[in-house]
Design goal:
The structure holds three protein chains of three kinds. Chain A is an alpha+beta fold. Chain A has one helix spanning about 1-35, and strands at about 45-50, 60, 65-70, 75-80, 90, 100, 105, 115, 125-130, 135-145, 150. Chain A starts with a helix and ends with a strand. In chain A, about 25% of the residues are buried. Chain B is mostly helical. In chain B, about 40% of the residues lie in helices and about 5% in strands. Chain C is mainly alpha-helical. Helix content of chain C is about 65%, strand content about 0%. Chain C has helices at about 5-25, 30-40, 60, 65-85, 95-105, 110-135, 145-165, 170-185, 185-195, 200-210, 220-250, 275-280, 285-290, 300-325, 350-355, 360-380, 395-420, 425, 435-440, 440-460, 465-490, and strands spanning about 50-55, 295-300. A two-stranded antiparallel sheet of chain C has the order 1-2. In chain C, helix 4 runs antiparallel to helix 6 (about 110-135). Classes of the chains: A alpha+beta, B mainly alpha, C mainly alpha.
Chain lengths: ~150, ~450, ~500
């Protein structure tokens, strides 16, 4: 009698065990579905153009991509227009300073924060030259402030 | 058992996918092609992941670049598909991130396997099989004016249009509201899929282009009760004509993606007479240059705008010089480059503007200045910093006078013309003649030094 | 001395085990009592009775069909909710979003396949479940109403499957729904024939109601989506609750009236420990009270292991199908290019075959007669005995067999005749539609079957036998017609032995 019972207990343990393992495995699949690996959004890569289109001392705004591009003799750099506080879009004042309309963060011309709640300066973005010679900025890849793409 | 199936499913989805192995192959190709340290570094950082061009304006998601990884990499020109560099200069004008792939090549952009993306097989349920090689010219004609492209990347399309006209197709078929009524209208004939065409008597692949070519060769074979005469011409003509027919597709381009020549075509339909130089000046120039007779300081633009109709400026100008200036504009200043690919004016129109400007010319002066052979750039710099920099600052944004580093200025002003302008100045403007006795005392050598220095600005 | 601090530390230490104890609220499952508690102290399990009759666990009796249906429903619900995360119900985006699910969404393709195959599985199993319940006589008193609920659930299952069919917005979906809705609006055939359409147009009303327009488009898509993901599921789950609750209230699964079910009075009251008895104190013939110990087992774990096994088997089945076959997705819907043949979902192809004779009779008339007939069976056949036994015994099995052979011969014979020689319209082109509506192969089948079952009732002097005969005939007819519609009908609804013979068009 006891023998029989034990066997039955082990049997049901195996049954419940495999049941819950299968459920757990399936749940992993379910959880994966909710986390997209590829999103249907435009590329974070922004085509800037050839370096000659950025004469020293000029600046260019890419309003739809929330991006400012500046240049001097040395090279070209890109500063994100996304406020590091809560993601509003900053505007550039004539004196070169950036102001955030949402919570009043202020940044100087090189994006360093000097007033307001922003925890750090505006992001500088990676600029790289594609094999075909065109410059691209990547809004998803930040570089340390002061990183400039150098003219050859 | 259930568990096993789940694991098989997981493995199939996460590892055994075609694009993953293709990307791994490309990564080793990159490594083998690496010439220097940075190449190796970028090859190492190549991630195996879905790559795509998402174009909301076209409602397209093109994952073609997940396998065609070398399209914008010139180093891949001699590598076989799928990694080959995109041939021609098409990508220069059609930025991948702005247009994607399927707008020209069709196929199924969302798909992630070769078979399904190309959609050439009947097993794949997709209406638009991929267009490759010359067939791609069909979609050029969907957005562009075919006549505009005969020497610009789509010769067969133009040939097709010519054959369409030469064969008198409009005698029976309507297109854009004009044409005979014996045959069906051909508007959007390119939208027909292989399912909406009768393939009973067509040999070969079940593709729309096969159907059209055989139908053009012998209409009665393909459609037994057809009354259409066979098209005159050889296989190449039928090929070209098919390309033209396939180009007649519905387009839903947003204004920002509409190509210049299509605007032109539309424009030509609305305006039978071309705009005169005066009308063009009125529409495109006078907002900044006003009547053009004098140099003015524009408050809101914060810049000095030259009087381009001032006789003294025009005295040394030629049509070519003005057209070139209009074409290139002044990068770094508000002056737009008016060439077709940016400001959108044709060379004809620019010429008419130049001729209109020259109508105000009252005298013609030869450029007499001749720079010396061995100018001293360093001396030029000193002179510039003494005399010029107050107005002509080194940065584009500053300065009241025109920025001399502008590529447009550098390209259009020859050394003699630059020297001439420095020496004699511009009457009625702040630019005095520095080589004339009453205003300054620069010798020709000094002027040449200055010119040489100005050449180094950018 | 009491130290609150020490007690607090002790409480902290025991937190996990105490928390677990409050969740489970029972000891180890060693006694009948604890096993019973495991059931009724658990919200999710307590729709079960704590004891299960051994007969109900016999595989050969139920074949677990109801449980399979529930398992498929569970899978369909879970996968359906997951698909809704990515699906966009507008004509512009529906097709592309399904493509995204197929190509890019992690596990999306698998989830969609599972949804499709378990939905089909559910349709099949629900049919079989109905046949099982019918042939074991389980619709009899006191289960008449639950049979009715079951018929409604069958209709809801078909409706859910049908509304889901449109959502991918491909050619298959578009044309299947066009056909399906035209079947639903076929009363127009009758009103047209009677010249009433101008005044009274129920067919047109149904179509407008379903499509929100005159043809399948954006309005139809949003309506079908709403029905599919919200309205019909609410009805389905509500009725399913009633269905399950009724099983308990009607005394569990049906079984033969054997002596062991005689009530040993006061049996459970003798032992106050067996509190599950209180749970079972319900009106009427609650079997939980009536069970003798020798023929019941504790539901925990026997019944639950069976249920889990069935859920796992169902999952394994659809997983295997999903791995092997992708859910179909054809070209994007194109109202200008009809599919040829344009077929409705397969479970309606029997109807489509009937519809090819007469839209009204095939689409509305006969289905409604059959549906009403099914609902009325328990009220027309009030005999007792034979409950819980397949075919109610040897006689019934014989009747089922002869009816099976009879209907096979009739259906295949008439079908072959129609395919080879055509029907009234081919012989008398000018014949009025009203005649075809009432005299067509579909109505002939129905009439022959009805006469056959009347004859069976007379011969066996038993309404039960007549019901078995009629049910068998209609089941066989439906299966054959569905099979022919699915396999042997090609372009222009012509007959072909196999798909390979279809003309290339």
């Amino acid at each position: 009698m006891t023998d029989k019972l034990t066997r039955r207990d082990i049997g049901s343990k195996i049954a419940f065990g495999s049941f819950w393992t299968a459920i757990a495995t399936a749940s992993v699949g379910v959880a994966k579905l909710l986390m997209p690996t590829v999103t249907p959004e435009a590329s974070t890569r922004v085509k800037l153009g050839h370096p000659e289109q950025f004469p020293a001392g000029t600046s260019k705004v890419f309003p739809n991509r929330n991006l400012f591009v500046f240049s001097d003799d040395e090279g070209i750099w890109a500063i994100s227009a996304i406020c590091t506080h809560l993601g509003c879009v900053v505007s550039r004042l004539p004196d070169g300073q950036f102001d955030c309309p949402c919570h009043g963060s202020k940044f100087n011309a090189s994006g360093e924060t000097f007033s307001g709640p922003a925890p750090r300066g505006l992001d500088w973005l990676a600029i790289y030259r594609a094999p075909n010679g065109v410059l691209y900025a990547d809004t998803a890849s930040q570089v340390p402030s002061g990183t400039v793409w150098r003219r050859a | 058992m259930t568990l096993l199936f789940l694991l098989v499913a997981a493995a199939r989805e996460n590892y055994f996918t075609e694009w993953r192995s293709t990307q791994r192959e490309f990564r080793s190709l990159l490594l083998s092609k690496a010439e220097n340290e940075s190449d190796v570094k970028s090859a190492r950082s190549f991630n195996v992941e879905i790559r795509q061009a998402v174009i909301p304006d076209l409602a397209s998601i093109d994952r073609c670049v997940s396998c065609h990884l070398g399209v914008d990499d010139p180093r891949m020109a001699d590598v076989p598909q799928p990694f080959t560099t995109h041939p021609g200069a098409y990508l220069e004008d059609h930025d991948l991130d702005r247009f994607g792939c399927t707008v020209c090549h069709l196929g199924q952009g969302q798909a992630t396997t070769r078979l399904e993306a190309h959609a050439l097989s009947e097993e794949v349920y997709w209406d638009w099989p991929v267009l490759t090689g010359p067939w791609t010219q069909a979609t050029c004609g969907t957005c562009h004016d075919p006549t505009h492209l005969t020497d610009r990347g789509a010769p067969l399309l133009g040939l097709g249009l010519a054959a369409f006209q030469a064969n008198g197709c409009l005698g029976c078929h309507k297109l854009g509201g004009r044409g005979g009524t014996l045959g069906p209208a051909l508007d959007q004939v390119g939208d027909k899929t292989s399912h909406s065409l009768p393939f009973d008597h067509v040999e070969g692949d079940r593709q729309v282009w096969t159907w059209h070519q055989q139908h053009l060769l012998s209409p009665q074979t393909v459609v037994p009760d057809s009354t259409m005469p066979a098209v005159e011409g050889d296989a190449k003509t039928r090929h070209a004509l098919t390309i033209y027919l396939l180009s007649l597709r519905t387009t839903n381009l947003t204004e920002s993606l509409t190509p210049f020549d299509r605007y032109q075509r539309r424009y030509r339909i609305w305006h039978t007479e071309p705009l005169s130089g005066a009308e063009l000046y009125e529409q495109f120039c006078q907002a900044c240059h006003e009547d053009g007779t004098e140099t003015v300081f524009h408050d809101s633009l914060d810049v000095t705008i030259p009087g381009i109709m001032h006789p003294d400026f025009l005295a040394t100008a030629t049509v070519e010089f003005l057209v070139e200036n209009l074409r290139l504009g002044r990068a770094g200043t508000p002056m737009t480059a008016w060439a077709e690919d940016s400001g959108g004016l044709t060379d004809d129109e620019l010429e008419r503007i130049a001729e209109y400007l020259l109508e105000s010319r009252t005298e013609v002066r030869e450029v007499t200045f001749e720079p010396v052979a061995d100018p001293d750039v360093e001396n030029g710099r000193l002179l510039f910093e003494n005399e010029c920099i107050d107005c002509h600052e080194l940065n584009a944004d500053d300065g009241e006078a025109p920025w001399l580093g502008s590529p447009g200025f550098q390209a259009t002003y020859s050394d003699p013309l630059m020297g001439h302008t420095i020496k004699f100045g511009r009457r009625d403007s702040l630019m005095i003649g520095y080589g004339e006795e009453e205003d300054g005392d620069f010798t020709d050598r000094q002027v040449s030094d200055l010119v040489a220095y100005i050449r180094t600005l950018r | 001395m009491y130290s609150a601090l020490r007690a607090f530390r002790e409480n902290l230490r025991q937190l996990p085990s105490n928390f677990w104890a409050t969740v489970r609220r029972r000891g180890p499952l060693k006694s009948d009592r604890s096993r019973s508690q495991a059931v009724f102290s658990n919200l999710f399990l307590h729709i079960h009775s704590v004891k299960t009759h051994k007969h109900s666990l016999k595989v050969s009796y139920t074949m677990g069909l109801g449980l399979f249906a529930a398992a498929f429903l569970g899978i369909v619900t879970v996968t359906g909710i997951l698909l809704m995360v990515y699906y966009k119900p507008t004509p512009d985006q529906a097709y592309a979003s399904i493509k995204e699910i197929h190509y890019i969404v992690p596990t999306g393709r698998m989830i969609r396949n599972l949804h499709r195959w378990s939905a089909h599985g559910m349709v099949v199993v629900v049919f079989l479940h109905m046949a099982r319940v019918f042939y074991t006589g389980s619709y009899r008193r006191p289960r008449e109403f639950n049979w009715f609920v079951g018929i409604l659930l069958l209709a809801l299952t078909l409706a859910l499957s049908f509304t889901g069919y449109l959502l991918p917005w491909d050619q298959l979906a578009y044309w299947a729904i066009t056909i399906g809705v035209n079947i639903a609006s076929s009363p127009r055939e009758l009103t047209d024939a009677l010249g009433l359409t101008q005044h009274f147009d129920p067919g047109g009303m149904i179509r407008r109601l379903l499509l929100g327009a005159n043809s399948v488009g954006a309005e139809a898509l949003i309506r079908f989506h709403l029905l599919h993901v919200m309205v019909l599921p609410i009805f389905l789950f509500t009725l399913l609750g009633v269905h399950f609750w009724r099983i308990r209230k009607d005394g569990g699964l049906s079984r033969p009236e054997t002596p062991d079910t005689a009530e040993p009075e006061g049996f459970f009251a003798k032992n106050p420990d067996k509190t599950y008895g209180l749970m079972a104190v319900v009106r009427g013939r609650s079997e939980a009270v009536g069970k003798g110990p020798e023929n019941t087992v504790s539901s925990w774990p026997t019944l639950f292991i069976t249920e889990m096994a069935i859920l796992m088997a169902a999952t394994a089945l659809v997983l295997a199908l999903s791995l092997a076959f992708d859910a179909p997705l054809k070209e994007i819907a194109n109202p200008a290019v009809p599919e040829n043949p344009a077929k409705a979902p397969w479970y309606f192809l029997g109807l489509q075959e009937l519809v090819s004779y007469s839209a009204f009779m095939g689409g509305i008339g006969i289905p409604i007669i059959v549906l009403i007939g099914l609902i009325l069976i328990p009220y027309l056949d009030r005999e007792k005995g034979g409950v819980g036994i397949w075919f109610g015994g040897k006689e019934g099995a014989r009747v089922a067999l002869t009816s099976f052979v009879f209907s096979m011969v009739v259906v295949i014979g008439l079908l072959a005749f129609v395919i080879n020689f055509g029907w009234l319209r081919q012989w008398f082109p000018a014949i009025p539609q009203i005649l075809i509506t009432f005299i067509n192969p579909g109505t002939v089948y129905s009439l022959v079957f009805a006469l056959w079952s009347l004859w069976v009732i007379r011969r066996h002097n038993s309404t039960r036998m007549g019901a078995i005969a009629l049910f068998t005939c209609f089941l066989v007819g439906y299966i054959i017609l569905t099979y022919v519609g699915t396999v042997h009908r090609g372009p222009n609804w012509d007959f072909y032995w196999s798909k390979a013979d279809w003309p290339t068009h």
